[in-house]
Write a structure and sequence with these properties.
alpha+beta; D-Maltodextrin-Binding Protein, domain 2; 2 domains; six-stranded mixed sheet; 18 strands; disordered N terminus
Length: 594
């Protein structure tokens, strides 16, 4: 459902954040009847992560301990460094040794699974969490979970997620979903939609910031901009649109993302709309075909980068960084260019709406984001210490550090008492990977961030200490500081405070609950069908974009549908429709409970 970003995505998210602000347990068996009844007597308390039992050792009395953390999203392998390491050492006398599959390479998950030990703490995709429950690689933490400081704040989400795991008894907890929030199932906190047509304000204003009714008008606008700016400041060729194939799965990812402009999301072989209706990806009236038509028309108009079918993400990254592509669509892409200085120079990218769009916008990740934290050790001492770390990572105190940084260095209390504000040092500490004073742990700022690279609670969750977000982007003082000539002119032109405000006021965005459930994996026969059909879809889609004329475009589309029929496409569509009905049903429940 999303981009295959991995390392690049992590860097992007970090940039965006900087730009826009800155103890014996029940072990899971193969089914619920295999679960034993052993309990632990340990309790994890409050904000300091120490046991609630009076005779429990204080942090300074705890024996030094190394916890192995197996983290799928981590881009760093080794001992957690820097200022976060200092905090964990002082609070819990613990050192985190991070195992990162992306760094280690090979099938490390299979190898460690075969050994019977993934890590003391594990962070896994939902499918691997489910597999690890069934294989007994992660442990029941029901009683420990109930003692966490923030358990009551996320019980609804924890119940939904754990109840969706096969082999878990009702009321038991094995995992904590990542990136949960304490807002609501239908709240969307950001001021920028996840996916929207976005253009450089100076170029858009230069051509009259025209009202655009539809995609055809967008093509005309891009053509006008390209006529005025055929090259960037360095003399390199610029284009209205640049695409890349190396993130494609079973369809073109650059098409999949834009289908959301028209209220549909690509999920395998089906399109899922904001109301929960599903149609095949190949529906003639569906958004996948519509966006292919858009790219085709754009290419006919000469505004599609001719390298689009062959270049990789690294090449595109460089083009975004040097303003050689005018249309971007994901919110995180703005981080490649936008700065305060460029904003005041009217050069930042910002949304350029179309009248016919209805953006499919998932809500805040109230129920989690597709991964989960779990405990992979049955050693009582390590389990207890790991739960201390969990408690800190999910508590307001820990979340302020994880999302805000170092108080007294990167942020401080706002002068008006309304939350926090970044310090001058904190403005670019992440982007520049600035040195950190020794009193806070030394090293470099970005290097010292929690290198697990995944959070138990999202930065947009509300901090009960000040009723603002944990993340810096939406601190009131940072919102004010982020206003530039670009945003001010845009606000005047579109009579709205920000893009989300405009979209909601004009009924051009529908927020759907972001639910986090375990979906059934492909059996072998479906996996084969998906692979075969996916290759056909990708090949035909690229040919359609670069078709010579409308007749050829239509012919390729019709031939694709005929070919897919010979590869059991209807069986795949039926499977995916049944698969994603679980998602639709949970969204309906979320809406009903809101």
């Amino acid at each position: 459902m999303g981009f295959k970003k991995q390392l690049s995505f992590t860097i992007v998210v970090m940039l965006v954040l900087a730009m826009f602000a800155t103890g014996c347990t029940k072990k899971a068996g193969n089914n619920a009847n295999d679960v034993s009844s052993n309990k632990t007597d340990s309790k994890v308390e409050g904000n300091n992560g120490s046991s609630s039992n009076d005779d429990t050792a204080t942090p300074s009395e705890l024996e030094p301990m190394v916890l192995e953390v197996y983290s799928q999203p981590a881009n760093f392998q080794g001992e957690q460094p820097g200022w976060t390491a200092k905090i964990l050492k002082e609070k819990f006398n613990v050192t985190l040794n991070i195992i990162a599959p992306q760094v280690a390479g090979g099938d490390i998950f299979a190898a460690r699974s075969a050994s019977g030990f993934l890590g003391d703490i594990v962070v896994l995709d939902n499918a691997d969490i489910q597999a690890s429950v069934k294989s007994g690689l992660i442990y029941d933490i029901t009683e420990e979970m109930k003692q966490l400081t923030s358990f009551k704040d996320y019980k609804t989400q924890l119940d939904l997620y754990n109840s969706s795991l096969d082999g878990v008894e009702e009321g038991a907890y094995y995992a904590w979903p990542t990136e949960m929030t304490n807002t609501s199932p239908t709240t969307f906190t950001p001021t920028i939609p996840g996916v929207a047509p976005t253009l450089p304000w100076d170029y858009y204003a230069e051509v009259g910031s025209p009202e655009m009714n539809n995609l055809s008008d967008l093509v005309k606008t891009l053509r006008a901009m390209q006529d005025l700016h055929p090259t960037n400041a360095n003399g390199d060729s610029s284009y209205g649109i640049t695409l890349w194939p190396d993130w494609d799965g079973t369809s073109i990812e650059n098409v999949n993302q834009l289908t959301k402009w028209y209220g549909q999301e690509v999920n395998g072989s089906i399109l899922l709309d904001v109301s929960g209706k599903m149609v095949p990806l190949t529906d003639d009236n569906g958004a996948y075909h519509k966006i292919l038509q858009f790219y085709f028309e754009a290419n006919q108009a000469g505004v599609v980068d001719p390298d689009s079918g062959t270049q990789n993400w690294d090449s595109v990254n460089n083009k975004f960084n040097s303003k050689r592509a005018f249309l971007i669509w994901n919110d995180w892409q703005q981080g490649f260019w936008n700065t305060t200085e460029r904003g005041n120079g009217r050069e930042n990218y910002i949304m350029a709406p179309m009248n016919d769009m209805n953006i499919y916008q998932p809500s805040d990740s109230f129920f989690g984001s597709g991964r989960a934290f779990a405990i992979g050790t049955d050693d009582p001492a390590k389990k207890e210490r790991a739960m201390m770390v969990f408690d800190w990572m999910s508590s307001p105190e820990g979340l302020e550090c994880i999302h805000g940084g170092i108080k007294g260095f990167s942020y401080e209390d706002a002068p008006d008492g309304n939350g926090y504000v970044r310090t001058p040092e904190g403005e670019y500490a992440l982007m520049d990977n600035s040195p950190v004073p020794e009193e806070f742990g030394g090293g470099l700022y970005a290097d010292g961030m929690l290198q697990i690279n995944q959070w138990m609670v999202a930065g947009i969750a509300t901090n009960p200490k000040n009723n603002t977000t944990y993340g810096t982007t939406y601190w009131p003082a940072e919102v004010e500081k982020a206003k530039t000539k670009t945003t001010n002119e845009w606000a005047e032109r579109f009579d709205a405070e920000n893009p989300v405000d405009y979209l909601l006021k004009n009924n051009k965005m529908t927020v759907v609950p972001f639910v986090n459930v375990n979906l059934k994996p492909d059996p072998t026969d479906i996996a084969l069908i998906r692979s075969n059909c996916g290759q056909l879809v990708k090949d035909a889609s690229w040919k359609m974009i670069f078709a010579n004329d409308q007749a050829e475009f239509d012919s390729i589309w019709n031939n694709l549908k005929e070919e897919l029929d010979g590869f059991d496409w209807s069986t795949l569509v039926e499977f995916d429709t049944d698969k994603y009905q679980v998602l639709v049903d949970e969204r309906a429940k979320a809406l009903a409970s809101n």
